[in-house]
From TrEMBL:
SUPFAM superfamilies: Clavaminate synthase-like. InterPro entries: IPNS-like_FE2OG_OXY (IPR044861), IPNS-like_sf (IPR027443), Iron_ascorbate_oxido_reductase (IPR050231), Oxoglu/Fe-dep_dioxygenase_dom (IPR005123). Residues 45-162 form the Fe2OG dioxygenase domain. This is Fe2OG dioxygenase domain-containing protein. The keyword Iron applies. Keywords: Iron, Metal-binding, Oxidoreductase. It comes from the Eukaryota. Pfam families: 2OG-FeII_Oxy. The lineage of its organism: Eukaryota, Viridiplantae, Chlorophyta, core chlorophytes, Trebouxiophyceae.
């Protein structure tokens, strides 16, 4: 876990420099040693679909429906052979309110997991903090198709969040300053659901085929060990 945090520190310092902030700008905001820290480890098991007849659902239903992450960035680690993660372009200005609160994705790109690789998503808070320059990308996990592995799929997601008191505003001040909590309140209504008719199916699948465990306190105690 220390290694993950080192990677986060490196990535965030590169983003800081690229945006025109001091190199250590995000270091205090994302310090997992701080009691105000909100970074979270999320372990998810997608149950095996072997022997389950899903028919046409394979084409349309998802293991995780399309969304953007609220985080600054998210690091995704997958079990070998995981399939289904797909990404789409981010939504411009979404974090401060889109035209109608919805967004239609018309092209999904597969993001196959490769041995030894970590996938990094940009989240809504970094989009806001970068004046909309870095776009939080939509992503989803679709069901495995025929011929793809139907076995369990495991994901470890390291959601990097700023600390409680962080004031979020980009270097160009394109959006007004906000706190993490106010940002989350404003954002709550914005994550979209691709297709309401499909949603109930996705939801049922999610409920019965996913176990998720979030563990902030454990992570923090792990990290504070010498
Ligand atoms: O399981 C995955 O690959 C994606 C997980 C994800 O998007 C999330 O937990 O927010
Ligand atoms: Fe996500």
């Amino acid at each position: 876990m220390q290694a993950l945090q080192q990677l986060v520190d490196r990535l965030m310092s590169l983003f800081a420099v690229g945006l025109g902030f001091p190199e250590d700008f995000f270091a205090e905001e994302t310090d997992v040693g701080s009691p105000e820290n909100n970074t979270m480890l999320d372990y998810t098991k997608h149950h095996s679909l072997e022997g389950i007849e899903l028919g046409k659902l394979r084409q349309s239903a998802n293991r995780i429906t399309a969304h953007t992450d609220e985080s600054l960035i998210t690091l995704l680690l997958h079990s070998p052979g995981s399939v289904g993660l797909e990404s789409a372009a981010g939504r411009d200005g979404q974090a401060v309110g889109s035209e109608d609160g919805h967004y239609k994705v018309d092209r999904w790109e597969p993001c196959p997991s490769k041995p030894g690789c970590i996938i990094v998503n940009i989240g809504d808070m970094l989009q806001y903090w970068s004046d909309g320059l870095l776009k939080s990308n939509f992503h989803r996990v679709r069901l495995p198709q025929e011929g793809e592995p139907q076995a369990e799929r495991y994901t470890i997601a390291w959601f990097v969040w700023p600390r409680d008191g962080a004031v979020i505003q980009g270097p160009k001040k394109r959006y007004p300053p906000t706190t993490m909590r106010d940002f989350m309140k404003a954002r709550a209504s914005l994550n979209f659901l691709e297709d309401p008719a499909r949603l109930s199916i996705c939801f049922l699948l999610s409920q019965s085929h996913i176990e998720s465990h979030k563990c902030t306190p454990q992570v923090q105690s792990q990290l504070s060990r010498p």
